[in-house]
Design a protein that fits this description.
Elements: H1 2-44, H2 50-81, H3 86-109, H4 119-123, H5 127-158, H6 165-191, H7 193-204, H8 210-213
Length: 214
């Protein structure tokens, strides 16, 4: 009985070691898209009133988690029963991301009224209009996250296709959670960085800093 108990622990330890090793490989493969995910979501979560930044980011994070819950089983089913569809799905996702990138470049070089509004007009917005804009931005961010999540999960799965199913599930799920918790945690730090700066200034009590005193 005792030997069987310890053998179970040994199997679990070996499984965790395989998961850790393959997770490192999968993380390296998906690092580029995770960086894109971070940059896109930092942009999507900015531009709101300071008091609304974290609630909006939390709404996007919940949407991202829901995306992962939907995508993970679908990707495993596709990998098992219709692997030929994975490459076309990646291509469609890549085209959508390329379209969004081209749109941003176009808006940068050809600014229009919707993007560059006068501050006085911004101040005349009603709470309903502000809430409507928030919902639109949240919806757009969740849609973009859905596309990026498909790319991340499929690439992560491609690195462990030769591993047992248990390792595949654990590795891909871990990468999916990292893509949400890790990315949006960093985004939260980025969008609240200004508040951290104000806090440090207030804590200094008007004293000169080290760099300033030199």
């Amino acid at each position: 009985m005792a030997s069987g108990f310890f053998a179970l622990f040994d199997d679990i330890a070996l499984l965790m070691d395989d998961v850790a090793t393959m997770s490192k490989v999968a993380t390296k493969k998906t690092a580029g898209i995770l960086g894109d995910d971070l940059a896109v979501n930092a942009d999507k979560a900015s531009g709101f009133a300071s008091s609304r930044e974290l609630p909006v980011l939390w709404a996007i994070t919940k949407g991202s988690l829901l995306n992962k819950i939907i995508i993970l089983p679908l990707v495993f089913l596709l990998s098992a029963f219709a692997p030929m569809l994975i490459v076309p799905i990646l291509m469609i996702g890549g085209l959508y991301l390329a379209y969004e990138g081209a749109e941003k470049i176009y808006e940068y070089f050809v600014p229009h009224e919707k993007v560059h509004k006068v501050n006085s007009l911004e101040q005349t917005k009603t709470p309903e209009e502000i809430l409507s804009e928030e919902k639109a931005k949240i919806k757009s961010a969740i849609l973009t996250d859905f596309i990026l999540s498909i790319e991340i999960i499929i690439i992560a799965l491609s690195t462990v296709t030769d591993q047992p199913m248990s390792v595949q599930v654990m590795v891909v799920t871990l990468i999916a959670l990292l893509a949400t918790v890790g990315v949006y945690g960093i985004v939260a730090l980025i969008v609240r960085m200004d508040d951290m700066g104000y806090k440090l200034i207030s804590m200094s009590g008007g004293q000169k800093g080290t760099l300033k005193s030199t």
